[in-house]
Design a protein that fits this description.
single chain; ten-stranded antiparallel β-sheet; four-stranded antiparallel β-sheet; 6 helices
Length: 400
């Protein structure tokens, strides 16, 4: 019995020994695999005066818009245009019932004629009194009274002339003309509408060539535009190219220019409204439409750039993995700025001569051995071509 126990104990010892030997071999194998270098591709941090394109969501607005109103009250009896029509300054749009204004002109003419006849009579009497006074046939007081009567009658004639002119103006104002060239809205009134002078809007007219495209920028971007366009050194003054992409993805054929800046920042958004002006000879741009505004020509001097694919996000922080001179990996936390095509601007966390890994990042950790193949940005297809992403100015303004 004792011999059997010894044999069983020997078997157990042998099994444990074999197990330990096997575990030790697996650990050694894992360690060997860990020490095998990982093949990666890396590019050098790019330092350059980076071309920078900003994109904003813009809206087309009228350059000028006004309500067409009549200067006299009355019923609309004629309409010579229809909604949506292009008109030129001075074109007849509407006619107001002119019967009462025609009668007013006739009445004013009659009153003027009557006062002119009375004035002529009083002037004849004055001339006679002047002669009688020279002959001492009448008193000086009588002459003075007649002179006053003539002056009073002259004033009445002048007043009646003014009333006649007003009556004629009112009659002329029964024809409503286009105050400027542009396009009518479809809010024009029908025939039979009772128009109140200076109150009833008969139609809306707006200038459609050129038009404004309006969008909002952050305070930082406004300062960038303002400094770039007013730089006293012409060599440093940036030349902007302002283009439009329409809602169907097509490019608008004309370039725009900066036209107007609002006078204050929005209290809630912290943004500033800017208007650019675009030609619109074909009338393709309609107020109220939305389009993407792209502004090229900006540059970030001495910007450090890393490819987007080199960036990794972890717990709200951005990191890259660099290949050190000893061919081991190192994790670097970075602060990024603007996105420029395939790149992001790095504000802190890297040096200009760092090699950032862009391929083979899976399962890489701090201190792992690397087999590095250095490639160029061209090899990887990286470029400064901007993406179609709209620049979210409100988020940028809050972040800054």
């Amino acid at each position: 019995m004792f011999a059997i126990k010894i044999k069983i104990f020997s078997v157990i010892i042998c099994a444990v020994a074999l197990l330990l030997a096997g575990c030790g071999g697996e650990e050694e194998e894992n360690q060997a695999l860990h020490e095998m270098p990982t093949r990666v591709k890396a590019v050098k941090v790019l330092t350059t005066n980076a071309p920078f394109t900003l994109s904003y969501s813009g809206q087309i607005v009228d350059r000028d818009e006004m309500k067409v109103q009549s200067k006299v009250s009355g019923t609309v009896v004629e309409k010579y245009v229809k909604g949506g029509q292009n008109v030129v300054a001075g074109q007849i749009l509407f006619k107001i019932d002119d019967r009462q204004y025609t009668a007013a002109v006739l009445q004013a003419e009659a009153n003027l004629a009557k006062s002119q006849t009375s004035l002529a009579k009083e002037r004849v009497d004055l001339q006679r009194d002047e002669e009688l006074w020279q002959e001492h046939a009448i008193s000086e007081q009588t002459l003075t009274n007649q002179r006053a009567t003539v002056k009073s009658q002259e004033s009445e004639v002048a007043a009646n002339e003014a009333l006649l002119q007003k009556a004629k103006d009112d009659l002329a104002d029964t024809i409503v003309y286009a105050p400027m060239s542009g396009r009518l809205g479809i809010d024009d009134v029908p025939i039979g509408t009772l128009s109140t002078a200076g109150n009833t809007a008969l139609a809306t007219i707006g200038v459609v060539d050129p038009v404004f495209v309006q969008f909002a920028v952050s305070e930082q971007e406004y300062l960038r535009f303002a400094r770039a366009t007013t730089d006293s050194n012409d060599r440093n003054r940036e030349r902007f190219k302002i283009s439009l992409t329409l809602a169907d993805g097509s490019s608008y054929p004309y370039l725009g220019e900066f036209a107007e800046y609002d006078r204050t920042l929005g209290n809630e958004t912290g943004t500033l409204t800017i208007r650019t002006i675009f030609r619109n000879p074909e009338g393709l741009l309609v107020p109220g439409m939305y389009a993407r505004v792209e502004i090229d020509g900006l540059r970030i001097p001495n910007a450090m750039l890393v490819p987007e694919r080199a960036l990794q996000q972890l717990l709200g922080e951005t990191m890259v993995i660099v290949a050190q001179s000893d061919n081991k990996s190192a994790v670097r936390k970075v602060t990024i700025g603007e996105k420029i095509g395939s790149y992001y601007v790095v504000k802190s966390g890297l040096k200009p001569d760092d090699l950032v890994i862009v391929e083979g990042l899976t399962m890489l950790r701090e201190g792992m051995p690397l087999e590095v193949t250095q490639v160029t940005d061209k090899d990887m297809g990286f470029s400064f071509t901007p993406s179609a992403q709209i620049f979210d100015v409100e988020k940028t303004a809050k972040a800054n």
